[in-house]
Design brief:
With about 475 residues, the protein is mostly beta strands. It has a single domain, classed as Porin. It is about 15% helix and about 50% strand. Strand 17 and strand 18 (about 400) form a beta hairpin.
Amino acid sequence: MKTNYLYICLLMLALPIATQGQRYFGVATGNWSGMNALYLDPANIACAADKYTIDVFSVNMGFDNNSATLTHNIFKTSNILKQDNVNIHDVVNFTDRSLISVMGPYMEYRLPGLMVKIDNNQTIALTTRIRSFNTINNFSQDFLRSILDIDFRNSIGDYKVAMNNLNWTANTWSEIGLSYANVLYKKDKHKITGGFTFRYLNGIAYTSIVSKQFNGDYNSESKVVTFNSDVHITSNIMNTQGMNSKSISSWLLGNNGGHGYGGDVGLNYEYRPGNEEDMYKIKLSFAITDIGAINYTTNNQQIHLYGSGSMDINKMSDSVKNYNSFVSFANASGLKADTTKAAAKVHLPTALVAGVDYNINNLFFASIMYNGNLVSRTIYGNSYYSQVTVTPRYDTHKFAVGLPITYSTLSQKMKMGLGLRYGGFYVGSDDMMAFVVSNQTGMNVYAGAFFHINPKPGPFHFPLTKLYRYKHQKKTKEAGCKSCLNG
């Protein structure tokens, strides 16, 4: 397999080996999940379970697409890729869809964070993380395979290339976030909480391609004749050496070319039909996440390609290695290329996250969550594809297990995962079937750890058995303290 600049970039789009970012549904929907629930809805932490919660670390990676499936499971695929002379069709089967859309590879690494319960109604949190997000929308499958797969290139006949509303954005950035949540209303059986997260965004590296129309014809001599093409490309890494020399501190705070602001905002409603100290029966949540954008100003390069021309597919992967070689190749192909070093705004994958959590018997719960895209795919930036996830779970302070079942509008398939938490240690997947069977469109895996300081379980906030609630109330009464019973 060739390993030059263009080939590696395109391989990231096509191969589900590297790994769509998910939201830890098997764990984050729980009432004892530490700071994980904050990323679903900042209002979730208003009545935190413990005085202090310290995030140690977590890592989350995933991938999903609509047009390719793994020929084998993840483990066998990894072994095949270690061999020499591996071609893309050795590990991937393509469907008959003309346009391929991808969400991934995605990686999120959460660094240490702190959550403090101010009182029974207020909580604040400080979070840090590094995210790398790659998405592609409406890329011609035949054109992609013609570039990546020499066997396909030699066997395919003439075909049309039509990539209207194309968007490919790969973006890596760091975040420092400050969250606050508060009880807004509490009376009788009803309770409303609200919260927000404000984030400082530090852009590290990005490349984005946006095209309202890219049309052409592929002929038997491996030529693509483009016409009525209008493509905008922007990046801050086309002429750089990459990120290998950067430390974690410089990723978070350094001058890496882009800065911006973002955040989340959310509301929760809880219905409690029993006594005030009982757990909620139904909880509704509504949040908008990843609001904001990064403005890249340093080392930025923009190219506007337009006009008509012809490109030799056989020479493309060898000719495109950096910014200058790409411009030269485009000009030699007959396209007009306007270049500039102007700043570019790259938008975050803004999404709507709404859910319902039903308390079955204080230990068993069932939730349904909707995750929907809110950002245009015609501008520079990443975006989610909508999905619905149902998660039955067993949830206690010490141990939790969740079984997220998701329908993805991207792959139009059902996905199954598993989340396990013991104390503050957790591991899981929102899309795990690729580990055991073949013909899967994607995968996801996550793991992490947090711990509590001075945990004080209170029946107003958490699911407890009647026996535990009785013992806790008796102990609280003897101690002359009613704070945790007052919510």
